[in-house]
From TrEMBL:
UniProt organism field: Enterovibrio gelatinilyticus
Cofactor(s) required, per the database record: Mg(2+)
Name assigned to this protein: Hexitol phosphatase HxpB
Keywords, in A-Z order: Carbohydrate metabolism, Hydrolase, Magnesium, Metal-binding
Gene for this chain: hxpB
Family: Belongs to the HAD-like hydrolase superfamily. CbbY/CbbZ/Gph/YieH family.
This protein's record includes keyword Metal-binding: yes
Cross-referenced InterPro entries: Beta-PGM-like, HAD-like_sf, HAD-SF_hydro_IA, HAD_sf, PGP-like_dom2
NCBIfam families: HAD-SF-IA-v3, PRK10826.1
GO MF entries: 2-deoxyglucose-6-phosphatase activity; mannitol-1-phosphatase activity; sorbitol-6-phosphatase activity
Signal peptide: none
Database matches in Pfam families: Hydrolase
EC nos: 3.1.3.22, 3.1.3.50, 3.1.3.68
Length: 216
């Protein structure tokens, strides 16, 4: 029986993925790193420190540390989210359905906690979530399931009794590895890829969510 809903954030609640892409292209470009927009799309759902570490090891740069580069990218994303407040379609609809089904609600994101807090405040969504979990300081980010397991534990609910909402394949793998029921809302340009078949429910938008989809 489903007792809790756990939501990802970037790309699901907030249309911030283009901001992450733009910020990476700008910051890495200034550092002389050869990176394309497709490269940023391919790493959707992966923690930014892991992405920065990868480019540091494979291409390298002179000057700022990896931590500094992460902060530069994050600062740009926070700035853009606060200005544009790009809430995704169907977010309030989905949260309302979960509340009406008496589900506990938490958030499990790869993003740093200060971005989570800034985003939820900008979109006026803080009150919906009992707990917010970041994979920022975990040993492994998504696709490792730890951030989802932590969210379930904080609610006192078994992962098998949780439904997870995701937009990225890395996030979907994390939720499935945690043995949660999954709803995926992939970005339109990758929505036709066959990899989404592992999800329990695939939607074009959270507007399509129904109460029946919340149960097994």
């Amino acid at each position: 029986m489903i007792k809790a809903a756990i939501f990802d954030m970037d790309g699901l609640l907030v249309n911030s993925e283009p901001f992450w892409q733009d910020a990476q292209l700008a910051v890495f470009g200034d550092l002389g790193i050869n990176i394309t927009r497709q490269d940023t799309i391919n790493t959707t759902g992966i923690r930014i420190d892991q992405i920065v570490k990868h480019y540091s090891e494979t291409q390298g740069w002179q000057g700022p540390s990896c931590d500094d580069v992460c902060d530069m990218i994050l600062d740009k994303v926070i700035e853009l989210v606060a200005i544009h407040k790009p809430i995704m379609p169907g977010v309030i609809h989905a949260l309302t359905l979960c509340k009406e089904a008496n589900l506990r609600i938490a958030l499990a994101s790869s993003s740093p906690l200060r971005l989570i807090e800034t985003t939820l405040k900008a979109l006026e969504l803080e009150a919906w979530f009992e707990h917010c979990h970041s994979a920022e300081h975990l040993k492994y980010g998504k696709p490792h399931p730890e951030v989802y397991l932590n969210a379930a534990e904080s609610l006192g609910i078994s992962p098998e009794n949780c439904i997870a909402f995701e937009d990225s394949f890395a996030g979907l793998l994390a939720a499935k590895s945690a043995q949660m029921r999954t709803v995926v809302v992939p970005e339109h340009q990758v929505a036709t890829q066959k990899q989404w078949v592992i999800s329990d429910v695939k939607l074009n938008s959270l507007d399509e969510l129904t109460a029946e989809m919340l149960t097994k």
